[in-house]
Amino acid sequence: MRLAVNIFVFAAILAVYTTIYAQQPATDSSFKPSGKFTSLVFGDYSYKVHADSANRGVGQYSGVPKAFSNFQIRRLYLGYNYDISQTFRADVLLAYEDGGGTSATLDGSGERSFYLKLANIRWKDIFSGSDLIFGAQATPAFVPLTEQVWGYRAIEKTIIDKNKLGAATDLGLGLQGSFDHEKNYGYDILFGNGSGQKLETDKFKKLYADLWGKFFEKVFVVNLYGDLNRSSDFPSKDVMTGKLFLAYQTKKLTIAVEGFIQSQSHSVIDSNYSSGKIDTLSLSPFGLSIYVTGMIVENSLGFFARYDMFNPDNNYLSTEVQYQKAYNTTNENFVVAGLDWQPAQNVHVMPNIWYTAYSNKKEGVSGNLKSDYDLAPRLTIFYKF
Questions:
Q1: What is the mean pLDDT of residues 343-371?
Q2: Which one of 127, 160, 229, 318 has the minimum C-beta count within 10 Å?
Q3: How far apart are CA 189 and CA 201, in angstroms?
């Protein structure tokens, strides 16, 4: 970890030195500082047709009772982007978000509120094809590429985000860019707090990195991502994530596969009471997401369908380990599908069905505790301006 940090710091210093002493970019005397406001909103009307009897899962409608209906705003962004000069740009974004359960952004009285999601300054072309970003910024985990290819964040988060195994933003120092002028190959590196939108509370930092490539006139997309975050020295608790994303993307059809595995060392307690033994084990969440999106009528009617398989611990040993009570033994299979009607530019009306099936890996479990599901038809509205 220290070696990786030293390499990153050295690269950043070298980039600054190269820019200041080796490059003297021409300035455009006609340039004038300017900015623009941006906003987007999405929400739904939903009705819970069936509820899981054990209230499992962390999804949008997990824990919501049967026959519950709801008009809901799930996201509201208010942002401002300002070009200070040809070299520097500043971004600020306030967000209200409701991810289901108790995750809504509320003030002390329970009313909808905002939090600071982005606040950063970007040094453009600090060296050829690359930008240096300081502040609260999007992480490489899923926002820059995976979420953009999926294209339906208003319907559901990508699989790592949905299962709360990675943050969309973090506060730190990032370097991102492309290796060629056509922007077919590139990278993202971020050295951050590792605490997402929350304040930093420890000495540890998180390193994010990814490589991406777009082939055959950008029809095929490949993305390899990894991160490393330590939260404790004694015992050493490290969280490491690896992800591979593949997509075939055209204007009329997109087919994509995303798979990830994560290792969380010393995060599970094995209490073997028969021998008086207490030990810690590694947790290994694993997931696979497959989806297809496309156009039925150009610029008017589209469709989307997605399937996720999520295993909260690929290392689960049902007969050899005495797990803590809070340990998650439930696999999830998630399906969402619907239509996308666009009555005007940047306005989308999307009827869809949200479904999650739960399957308990624990032996001796039967009935609804063994397998059950959540089902909620929705009408989703998305617009931006």
A1: 94
A2: 318
A3: 22
Non-local (6+) Cβ contacts of 214 within 8 A are 183, 184, 185, 220, 221, 222
Strands 237-249 and 34-47: unpaired
Per DSSP, helices labelled H in the chain are 2-22, 146-150, 159-162
Q: Which two tokens stand for residue 179?
A: 């290796």
DSSP, residue by residue, 128-181 = TTEEEEEEEEE-TTTTTTHHHHH--TTT---HHHHTTSS-SEEEEEEEEEESST
What's the CA gap between 197 and 178, in Å, rounded?
27
Which contiguous run of DSSP H or E holds residue 253? strand 253-272
By DSSP bridging, strand 253-272 and strand 277-283 are antiparallel
Cα–Cα distance for residue pair 180/158, rounded to 1 Å: 28
Q: Which residues, other chains included, contact 143 with Cβ-Cβ below 8 Å and sequence gap of 6+?
A: 168, 169
Which residue type, as a one-letter code, is found at position 226? G
Phi, psi torsion values for 288, nearest 5 degrees: -140, 130
By CB neighbour count within 10 A (0-12 exposed, 13-18 middle, 19+ buried), where does 29 fall? exposed
Neighbours of 275 (CB within 10 A): 7
Backbone phi, then psi, for 17, in 5-degree steps? -60, -45
72-116 pLDDT per residue, tens: 999 999 999 999 999 999 999 999 999 887 788 998 889 999 999
pTM of the predicted model, to two decimals? 0.89
Residue 306 makes CB contacts below 8 A (sequence gap 6+) with 150, 152, 156, 289, 290, 291, 292, 334, 335, 336, 337
Q: Which residue in this structure is represented by tokens 């099936």?
A: 357
